[in-house]
Amino acid sequence: MPQTDLMAHPDPVTEPRREPASDTVARFDHARLGFGSRVLWDDLTLRISRGEFIAVLGPNGSGKTSFLRCLLGQYALDAGALSVTDAIGYIPQQHADDSDPMAMRGRDLVGFGVDGGRWGVGLRGRARRRRLVDAALAEVGATAYAEAPMGLLSGGEQQRLRVAQALTGDPTLLLCDEPLSSLDPSNQQLVVELIDERRRNAETAVVFVTHEINPILPYVDRVLYLVGGRFRIGTPDEVMTTETLSNLYGSDVEVLRVHGRLLVIGGEDAHHCDHRPEPPTVPGHDGERAAQQ
Ligand SMILES: Nc1ncnc2c1ncn2[C@@H]1O[C@H](COP(=O)(O)OP(=O)(O)OP(=O)(O)O)[C@@H](O)[C@H]1O
């Protein structure tokens, strides 16, 4: 869903407070979120600064997308506070939709980032839309295939356009929900470099949900690792260790570094580059945490 839509229909209950202009683009204070008796995280305190690259990791169902939804104002915290900039760009999880991929051109998709696909924006609105779309297309190097139907573009080209869509609002915070899934390694690399370029050029903070840390490892400042109601926050060197992950999962997890890549053996599912087939039991939540900031 385009970011403009999310902001245009705020739920008065769930809308987070807006962060005043500063180096901080989002701040969670002693935050808790859960559904029914299930706690996704509790007592989460985290400040996200401009230009920071934060990876959100964890097994299926641990709350990664819910974390983004809180930042988008779609989910209200159960306790604690959240303040966040209103200049948010959002690359949603890729899934099939009802639109005809041969009828929608690349520039149409990017344009949804500007106006959510509203009709009747008027001549001046159309000129502004075209300007913003052209700038976003140029920023991601997608101008050459902007007129082509989405259905004729490769996965990497389509993902480039989704990044462009998220950039049309000139965000200070870019939320990415598994933008590398279904891309081959070279296209993964291209998309990550694109996002990192935006971060360096505009100091846009990046919150990047992923099952696979290796493609983004060189860029990540901090990791938020969610497991079964517990979490760790810290640099990759602090969080991605045998000791920390074993502690977090409550079972044996081994982290190896092989040629600059992380190999995680154990853990609940394959959210890294490799794992052993038999998953250990994930304990219930107990609010344990460390290296909080
Ligand atoms: N609106 C909701 N109402 C009830 N339960 C919800 C809601 N949103 C999420 N959940 C539950 O919260 C848990 C976390 O979901 P979430 O989608 O955030 O996990 P995730 O880590 O992103 O998972 P995945 O890796 O599979 O995408 C899941 O068990 C999910 O069913």
From TrEMBL:
A Pfam short name: ABC_tran
Biological source species: Gordonia insulae
Xref: SMART domains: AAA
Repeat keyword on record: no
Protein name: Putative ABC transporter ATP-binding protein
InterPro entries, alphabetized: AAA+_ATPase (IPR003593), ABC_transporter-like_ATP-bd (IPR003439), ABC_transporter-like_CS (IPR017871), Metal_Ion_Import_ABC (IPR050153), P-loop_NTPase (IPR027417)
Region annotation Disordered: where it falls in the sequence: 1-22, 270-293
Domain annotation ABC transporter: ranges: 26-253
Segments crossing the lipid bilayer: none
Keyword list, A-Z: ATP-binding, Nucleotide-binding, Transport
GO-annotated molecular function: ATP binding; ATP hydrolysis activity
